[in-house]
Amino acid sequence: MIREKVSEKTQRIRREFAKQILNLMTSAFGLVAALAWNEFIKELIDKYISPFFGESSGLISKLIYALLITLLAVLITYNLSRFAEQKD
Fold first, then answer.
1. N or C terminus: fewer CB in 10 A for the chain?
2. CB under 8 Å, gap of 24 or more: what pairs does 23-32 form?
3. Which stretches are transmembrane (predicted)?
4. φ and ψ of 63, to 5 deg
5. What is the spatial distance between Cα 25 and Cα 31, in angstroms, rounded to a whole number?
6. What residue ranges do the domains of the chain occupy?
7. Mean pLDDT of the chain
């Protein structure tokens, strides 16, 4: 009886732990995507607002970086969500 209760509580703790890790990882990838877009927008502003900045060869690479990070965040979040659903 006591072992069953302990085992049940242990399983609930593990599920909750997995959910919290998923939430933290999702938030982390969201932050990375936001930072990537932030860099792109800053570069865009520097290019068009500041005429003395000159031509920026890094603008396209930052856009590509932002898109790739966003895609990566979506794919990883999707896979982590599927993994968490399988654990339940």
1. N
2. 25/76, 25/77, 25/80, 26/77, 26/80, 29/72, 29/73, 29/76, 29/77, 30/73, 32/69, 32/73
3. 21-40, 60-80
4. -65, -45
5. 10
6. 2-87
7. 81
Supply 31's token pair.
Answer: 């932050």
Q: How far is residue 73's CA from residue 28's CA, in Å, rounded to a whole number?
A: 9
Can you tell me which residue has the tokens 């990882």?
25
* pLDDT for position 26: 92
- pLDDT digit string (tens) for 34-56? 898 888 877 776 676 655 545 65
Task: Return phi, psi of residue 5, to 5°.
Answer: -65, -40
In angstroms, rounded to a whole number, what is the distance separating the alpha carbons of residues 23 and 78? 12
What are the tokens at 88? 């339940």
